[in-house]
C-alpha cells in the first residue's frame, strides 16, 4: 500500500504534520477542530459524509473540480462548508 498525495504544490512539505491521507488513521485525532478535506470526486465525498460528525468545522476543498447539483445538496444537508477554487 502506498499513500498517493494530490498534485498540489507544497503538499509534500506538510504531509504528516497538517496534511494526511487517511481520515481514520489521522482524522479522529483532529476531531472537534477545523478539518478540511480535499474531495475532487465521489469516493472522497464518501469520506466527508462519514467524518462529518467528528467536527462542526468541516470544509470540502474540490481543487476546482465541479460538483453535481446532487453533491452540492448532500454537502449542504450536512452543513459542510465548500470551497471549489484551485488549491494554492
Task: Give structural notes.
- The protein has 88 residues and is an alpha/beta fold.
- The protein is 32% helix and 12% strand.
- The chain has helices spanning 11-14, 23-27, 42-51, 69-77, and strands at 35-38, 58-61, 81-83.
- The chain has a three-stranded parallel sheet, with helices on one face.
- Helix 4 links the parallel strand 2 and strand 3 (81-83).
Offer a concise description of the structure:
The chain has 88 residues and is an alpha/beta fold. 32% of the residues lie in helices and 12% in strands.
Descriptors:
3-stranded parallel beta sheet; 32% helix; single chain; globular; 88 residues; FAD/NAD(P)-binding domain; alpha/beta; 4 helices
Please tell me the CATH architecture by its name.
3-Layer(bba) Sandwich
Rounded mean pLDDT score: 88
Number of separate domains: 1
Strand order of the largest sheet: 1-2-3
Query: What is the first-to-last residue Cα distance?
Result: 28 Å
Amino acid at each position: 500500500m502506498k499513500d498517493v498525495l494530490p498534485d498540489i504544490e507544497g503538499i509534500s512539505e506538510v504531509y504528516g504534520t497538517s496534511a494526511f491521507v487517511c481520515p481514520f488513521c489521522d482524522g479522529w485525532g483532529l476531531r472537534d477542530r477545523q478539518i478540511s478535506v480535499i474531495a475532487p470526486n465521489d469516493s472522497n465525498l464518501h469520506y466527508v459524509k462519514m467524518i462529518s460528525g467528528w467536527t462542526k468545522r468541516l470544509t470540502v476543498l474540490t481543487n476546482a473540480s465541479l460538483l453535481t447539483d446532487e453533491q452540492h445538496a448532500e454537502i449542504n444537508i450536512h452543513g459542510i462548508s465548500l470551497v471549489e477554487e484551485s488549491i494554492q
